[in-house]
Inverse folding.
């Protein structure tokens, strides 16, 4: 039987509806949740992501401060801007769209953001809190994946989760989340140096592909009845497509869907959840602290 589709769009819609209700309550209390979005340069993918985030903010009744900078912006100028936003009480969250121009050090910029406004969950303080299991902002894509998994009638405790990809944005934080005591999965983190990748993937109860390589995971790498989460969003040239490309995940959907019990599509799977989790972090940042 073909795999059941995990509808990230619908789950995200429900989450965003609840966020909108809470945001409306905050507005009545004189609090206007606001996210400052900084984009340096004109990378097409980044422009698309930023546009989707700003649309979602508006739909949830939140404010966005759209800051566009030229590709040539200096690192010092960007750091000065972040400092101003850190000190602005009307701004609750700060998001610097990655990647940055090559002459700017991403780690320096991320570390400059006030951890209380780090709604991306990338600051070293946020990463440390995640690893230690302490309160803090969770990175949006890993949190979105975890939320989808929790919606399934599949036990996570004791499950063998294989994460393919060790990026600081998805793979590593997701592995840390899944092995937290309240989730209790057993995690194998795979990467470019992993031997026998196919054999390891076939052992997974939950297989998460986040390597950024289109079609990396084939049906031959998946055991019958596994849960497969495809985090990859890759642009593949397609002259027949209106935009000249199409989106393809890290999973070969057709062959894997024949064996998996549940699978996320691309698009419409993890992507909408990432934005929903970002809105949730902005809401948390805006809510009064006792």
């Amino acid at each position: 039987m073909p795999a059941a589709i995990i509808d990230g769009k619908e789950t995200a819609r429900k989450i965003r509806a609840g966020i909108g209700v809470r945001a409306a309550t905050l507005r009545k209390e004189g609090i206007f949740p606001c996210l400052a979005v900084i984009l340096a340069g004109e990378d097409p993918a980044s422009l698309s992501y930023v546009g989707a985030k700003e649309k979602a903010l508006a739909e949830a009744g939140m404010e966005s401060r759209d800051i566009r900078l030229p590709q040539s912006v200096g690192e010092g100028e960007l750091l000065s801007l972040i400092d101003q936003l850190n000190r602005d009480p009307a701004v609750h969250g700060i998001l610097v769209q990655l990647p940055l121009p090559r002459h700017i050090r991403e780690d320096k910029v991320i570390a400059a953001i006030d951890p209380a406004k780090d709604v991306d969950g990338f600051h070293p303080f946020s990463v440390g809190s995640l690893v230690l299991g302490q309160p803090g902002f969770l990175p949006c894509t890993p949190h979105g994946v975890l939320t989808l998994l929790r919606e399934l009638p599949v036990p996570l405790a004791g499950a063998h989760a294989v994460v393919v990809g060790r990026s600081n944005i998805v793979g590593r934080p997701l592995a840390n989340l899944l092995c937290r005591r309240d989730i209790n999965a057993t995690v194998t983190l795979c990467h470019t140096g992993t031997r026998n990748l196919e054999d390891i993937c076939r052992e997974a109860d939950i297989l998460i592909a986040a390597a950024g390589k289109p079609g990396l995971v084939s049906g031959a790498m998946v055991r019958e009845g596994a849960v497969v989460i495809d985090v990859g969003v890759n642009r593949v040239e397609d002259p027949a497509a209106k935009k000249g490309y199409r989106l393809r995940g890290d999973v070969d959907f057709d062959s894997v869907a024949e064996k998996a019990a549940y699978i996320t599509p691309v698009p419409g799977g993890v992507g909408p959840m990432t934005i929903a989790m970002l809105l949730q972090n902005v809401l948390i940042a805006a809510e009064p602290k006792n």
User: Anything to note?
Assistant: The CA atoms of residues 7 and 103 lie 39 Å apart. The chain has a mean pLDDT of 95. The first strand starts at residue 4 and ends at 5.
